[in-house]
Amino acid sequence: MDVTEIVQVVILGLLQGIAEFLPISSSGHLVIAEAMMGTKHPSAALNIALHLGSLGSILVVYRDRIVRLAMNRRVIGMVVLATLPLVVIGVPLKKLFDLLEERHWTPILAGAGLLLTSFYMFRSQRIPGGTGSLEEVTPRQALLVGVFQAIAAAPGVSRSGSTIFAGLVGGMTRQGAADFSFLIAIPAILGATVLYSKDLYESGETGSLKLLLIGAAVSFVTGIFVLRWLLKVVVAGDLRRFAWYCLGMGTCVLVWQGLRLLGTPGNLN
Fold it and tell me: Rounded distance, CA 137 to CA 40, Å?
C-alpha cells in the first residue's frame, strides 16, 4: 500500500460520499473520470466498501426516524413497493449498460444522463411542495418514485435527483420526498452491494484491508455531512445550482465525445 493508492482511494471515497447523495450522479462522474484518465473501475471489494460507507451515512442521519418507522408496517411496505421496479427494470438496464460500456458508449450516456438530471432539478425547482408526508406516502407515489429510481441505473442519471423529483410530481412535500428518497436508498445500496459481492466472488480479488477501510471511512464521513446539508437545500427548494452544474457538465461531455467520435484533436482517449 503506497501513497498513490491511498490518495486514489481517498478521492474515490470523497466522490462516493459527495455524488451518492447530491443530485449529480456518482456513477456518471465515475464513468467520465475513467474515460478522461483511462483508468478502470474500482475493484469489486472497494466498491462494496464505498457503498457500505454510504449506507452507514444514511443509517446515522436517519437513525431516529428508522427506529420510529421500524414499527410502521405501512411505510415499510411502501419502501418495499418502491424497491420492486429496481429489480424488474433496474437489473436488466444495468446489464444493457454493461454491454454498452464494452463498446465505449457509456461516456455519451453519462453526458445525456446529466442533461436529464438537469431537467429534473429545474422542474423540481418549479414544483410547489405537496401535502403528502413520509408517513402518508401512497402506493401510487411509491411506485412512481420506484420507477424513477430504476431508470437512474443509467449513467449520469442521479438516483437522489430522480426520486426526489418523482416524489414532488406525485404530490409529496419536499421533506417527505427527500426522506422517502433516502430511505429507499437503503435497500438499493444493499442490492448494489450484493451485486458487487457476486463480482467479488467471481473475480476472487480481495484487496488491501487497510485501503478498504480508508475508502469506507471517507465515504461514510463525507456522506454524513453532504446528506445533512442536502436535506436543508431540498426543503428550501434551492436546487438550481445542481441543475446548472449538470447542464454544463453534460453539455461538455457530449461535445467532447462528439469530437472523439469524429476523430478530431478533441479525442482524449
Answer: 40
Q: How many domains does the chain have?
A: 1
| pTM: predicted TM-score of the whole model, two decimal places | 0.85
143, 87 contact by CB (below 8 A): no
DSSP 39: P
| Helices and strands (H, E) in the chain, number of each type | 13, 0
pLDDT in tens, 156-195: 899 999 999 999 999 999 989 999 999 999 998 888 777 7
Burial class for 198, CB neighbours closer than 10 Å (0-12, 13-18, 19+): exposed
Residue corresponding to grid cell 430504476: 150
How far apart, in Å, are the Cα atoms of 71 and each of 37, 83, 85, 87?
48, 19, 24, 25
Asked whether residue 269 is domain-assigned, the answer is no
Within a domain: residue 268? no
Phi and psi torsions of 132, nearest 5°: -85, 115
Rounded-to-integer distance, Cα 140 and Cα 82, Å: 9
Quote the domain boundaries for residue 146. 3-262
